Amino acid sequence: MSGKENLSQQDLTTSTFSVSSNDVYRNNNSGKSNGKAGKSATRAILCSLFVCLLAIIALAVTLAIVVTKKIDEKNETPRATPEPGSGSQTGDGSGNCPDTGNTGSSNEFCTTPDCVKAASNMMKSMDMTVDPCADFFEYACGGWTRSHVIPEDKAVLGTFYTLRDDVDIKLKAVLEQPIAAGEWEAITKAKQYYQSCINLTAIEDMNLTESIVTVNELGGWPVLSSSWSESSFNLEDVLLTTRKYTNSPPIFDSYAYTDSKNPDARILYVDQPGFGMPNREYYLKGRNDKTLLAYEKFATEMAVMFGANEATAKNDMKDMVDFEIKLANISLPSEERRDEDKMYNLRTIQNIASSSPAINWNKYFTNLLKINDLNITLGSGENIICRNPEYLRLLSGILTDTPKRTVANYIVWRYVARLPNALPERVRDIQTKYRKALVGTAQVEPRWKTCAGAANSNFGLAVGNLFIDKYFGAEAKVDVSSSNDIKSIYVYFKKLK
């Protein structure tokens, strides 16, 4: 579900492709083997994932133990001790439990259906006939790899992918529920979005009409028109308009979310953005990397499909990708963004404006709040959490040195790049070719799954509400809320280090 609340209207698009570091089982069609080194790296990732999975299961089991223990304490009744010779036998068959060194009560063992299922899944994933000291990978994951086959529409498969498939099926069910009288407007819109997404006939009939209207509202896509003028381009205005149509803003990201050091308050955040390709590393492999060139070709063909001259499209999209490479180079890799204390940098709007003068930050933040009709006035001394101050500082120089035409092309491209699944088949075919180069498979997933994922991406809070109401009982919140022992889980994991 959505992890942050963007200050934007929800766009009728889907997110671009992503390849997670949790990928654990790759399709042989995704590229040539890298030999022993590649296998070793893959096995290292698999084993790391297995350890992480063990930790997650341990957390779930520990939480279940805590909640179960609380319930049992309330309902505890005296237990009868079997009489000698009564026929009630355990362990060695003598009627006496073997000494395991465990002096605790039976409440220390979780036997709820969820715990039993988690333990069963773990055992099925392992191959206990293998000596873990001889082949830990096979011991930990042998059962899983032998019982799973990569679907044609996927390039990778892992435990979290199968979990996501289960969630997608449940999302489909809640999104296909009839619109109910009196339900929240956001929930109604999420259902309508899903229905419009799966209606391919209407999409073909609409052609590119609505998309071109939106492109014009963004100030036009320079690659499409020889009459586009830099004098009419205003960066802040275009960025703010973009926020109305996409929850994945280009250039930099900004959103309102809970203050991580003051959970009772909400605060504005500003951060480096996501990129057109799955992550920054794709831009750092060299200008002639095949996936980067495929991305540039994808952008060029989309521009031509929207009406651009082919030669102009090639030149403009090359400049645009060069610009995006510069942005990727000044961004932080994910491994350097894990320490929340280091990412928590309080800055005033005036501080940010001083270090990054190419953007009118006062204008941007003031008008950002107006998008959602929030009657809030921000002063230059307003505190904002700046998660990557150095990115904003370096961004200012790049914007100053880059032609406005290139910047405008990039901003509009980031909107257009999210459109193919909402456009006619001939446009989706362009995306499919890019997907083949990016992740190694051209097989398209079922339309309902694409639409369920898009609805969840764009209406996360509304879809999350539907999901919880359908699949979580009221007692789930009560059990967690009433537990005072959550801290003990944290202490438990600290002892594991």
From TrEMBL:
The keyword Disulfide bond applies. Residues 18-38, 75-103 are annotated as: Disordered. Residues 132-481 form the Peptidase M13 N-terminal domain. Residues 27-38 have a biased composition (Low complexity). Gene3D superfamilies: Neutral endopeptidase , domain2. One of its GO terms (cellular component) is plasma membrane. GO terms for molecular function: metal ion binding; metalloendopeptidase activity. It comes from the Eukaryota. The chain crosses the membrane at residues 44-67. Keywords: Disulfide bond, Glycoprotein, Hydrolase, Membrane, Metal-binding, Metalloprotease, Protease, Transmembrane, Transmembrane helix, Zinc. One of its GO terms (biological process) is protein processing. Its cofactor is Zn(2+). This is Peptidase M13 N-terminal domain-containing protein. The lineage of its organism: Eukaryota, Metazoa, Spiralia, Lophotrochozoa, Mollusca.
